[in-house]
């Protein structure tokens, strides 16, 4: 399996260094490189890479801002000259980070992580615009940031013009409308319970009849979600209740 990769890095020297390391790995196809966030965004949109080598500290916009711009984030390896960023990158759930100048041994170790990660992800091209459960999205709320796998999200909820995302014990805001979020979610596992909420059916622990033909769902975290009457009929048919 060939690994499609792109580099987003403002330093030409650092880009050349990465390209020389990549050449020693026959299974990595470098699709392109960019020297700033806007060019990097366009490159990723046009090539849909498996792997992103991303510099954190770039002028005008940093690497984290690029991740915010993407609907689906590739496997990400941060490249940085600063140790404090190396620690912070794990809060973003990056697969790995490489400190500049990058040694061949350290690069090879990172590539083994990439191969292991890709082997665990569903293969095969998905022609639709919808995300897969294995896809990850980037969420930034205040100073906190996460790279979250779609399948780990229990539900979404409208908060004004934004959407609250529930995963683990976290519930940050995503700066997109619930309708836009719904268009990207895998239909097999996510269900629109009502105008305000979308649930991941894998996280439903209990279903009970409610008033006026409605249903009430109990999620694994104990939260209760009311399904509208119209959606209750659809839910029953879908779940063969």
UniProtKB/TrEMBL annotation:
Residues 137-241 form the HTH LytTR-type domain. Residues 4-115 form the Response regulatory domain. The modification 4-aspartylphosphate is found at residue 55. InterPro entries: CheY-like_superfamily, LytR-like, LytTR_DNA-bd_dom, Sig_transdc_resp-reg_receiver. GO terms for molecular function: DNA binding; phosphorelay response regulator activity. Keywords: Phosphoprotein. SMART domains: LytTR (SM00850), REC (SM00448). Pfam families: LytTR (PF04397), Response_reg (PF00072). PROSITE patterns: HTH_LYTTR (PS50930), RESPONSE_REGULATORY (PS50110). Gene3D superfamilies: 3.40.50.2300, LytTr DNA-binding domain. It comes from the Bacteria. SUPFAM superfamilies: CheY-like (SSF52172). PANTHER family: STAGE 0 SPORULATION PROTEIN A HOMOLOG, TRANSCRIPTIONAL REGULATOR-RELATED. This is Transcriptional regulator. It comes from Flagellimonas olearia. The lineage of its organism: Bacteria, Pseudomonadati, Bacteroidota, Flavobacteriia, Flavobacteriales.
